[in-house]
Amino acid sequence: METKIPIEDVSAQGGSILDTGTEDPRLIGELHSKENNFTSNENPLKCELRRSRHLQSDGEHTTGTPVIEVINVKKSYILADMEVPILHDINLEVREGEFLAIMGPSGSGKSTLMNLIGFLDRPTEGKIIIKGLDINELSDKEVARLRGLEIGFIFQTFNLIPRLTALENVELPTYANIRSGIDAHARAKELLTLVGLEDRMHHKPGELSGGQSQRVAIARALINDPAILLADEPTGNLDSKTGCEILNMFTRLNEDGRTIVMITHDPEIARYADRIVLVKDGIIQNNSE
Ligand SMILES: Nc1ncnc2c1ncn2[C@@H]1O[C@H](COP(=O)(O)OP(=O)(O)OP(=O)(O)O)[C@@H](O)[C@H]1O
Ligand SMILES: [Mg+2]
User: Could you list which residues have their CB under 5 Å from ion ligand 2?
Assistant: First the structure.
């Protein structure tokens, strides 16, 4: 059985992504219901997932338009008047429709890099370009709009607002940015149904399990139908079966055209990505770009 959910096409060719408030491009995205998506699984770490579409590749290089460009990026923090370098000289290109996994030891700078790509922090040096737009050249309002409409962020610790219901949490990003013609309330309900939480919409995060909370976080990340999903260890706090379910959702979303960047410590999870980059001591070790 398949559930068809109308999805605003944010990755439509052509127009500037900052103009989306006046555009109303549509397409019907097909996402399978959880009955099809989720695989019951007794064996830890073995997800019975099928990848029906892989990005075109000529062996070493994937093809397609770059949607994320990280150019000569350095990031340092100032601690007790000392500059502590975290990311040294990062160059990374992620192409439209690509599913990229970032791996690396704890403390190597993976989340720092993800936060920079998601505009949650600014680089000390270098450029971040999202869908051709250099954030250094955008106003604060334009950056907020780009982040709100084009980037869905999924955190390891869910980051849900405890006093809001699941439904209100999913709707929350639309208070700041919303695409024209969208009924946020109806879409939030559709998304919660899509992630299998139709009977938990009015529960607060404290009344949800970890896996359910992560599904709410995924629905929240999708509310503005972003072209890019950034996920920082989305399965890190979940048991292996729930982790498989979440990963299965990601592969469906990727097959539906979204670009996904996912941090994981789990090589079994990472192998479902099109490409894996390894961050170690603030440097990308195996960048094939
Ligand atoms: N706000 C901050 N101020 C100072 N140092 C920070 C800050 N955020 C991160 N760091 C430091 O940056 C380094 C990289 O942290 P980061 O969270 O990016 O690692 P990570 O690779 O995501 O690790 P993990 O796998 O444990 O999540 C760590 O040494 C951390 O202490
Ligand atoms: Mg981290």
Answer: 111
Confidence class of residue 2 from pLDDT cuts 50, 70 and 90?
Answer: very low
Query: Using CA of residue 62, residue 67, residue 73, residue 76, what is the dihedral sign?
Result: negative
| Ligand 1 closest atom vs CA 112 | 18
Note the Cα 143 to chain centre separation in Å: 17
Tens-digit pLDDT profile for residues 157-201 = 899 999 999 999 999 999 998 888 889 999 999 999 988 999 999
- Which of 75, 81, 83, 108 should be mutated for ligand 1, with most atoms under 8 A from CB? 108
236 lines ligand 1 (CB under 6 A): no
Taking the model in full, what pTM does it have? 0.81
Ligand 1 atom at minimal distance to the Cα of residue 113: 18
Residue 231 CA: which ligand is closest?
2
> Phi and psi dihedrals of 96, rounded to 5?
-55, 130
Tokens for 199?
């009977």
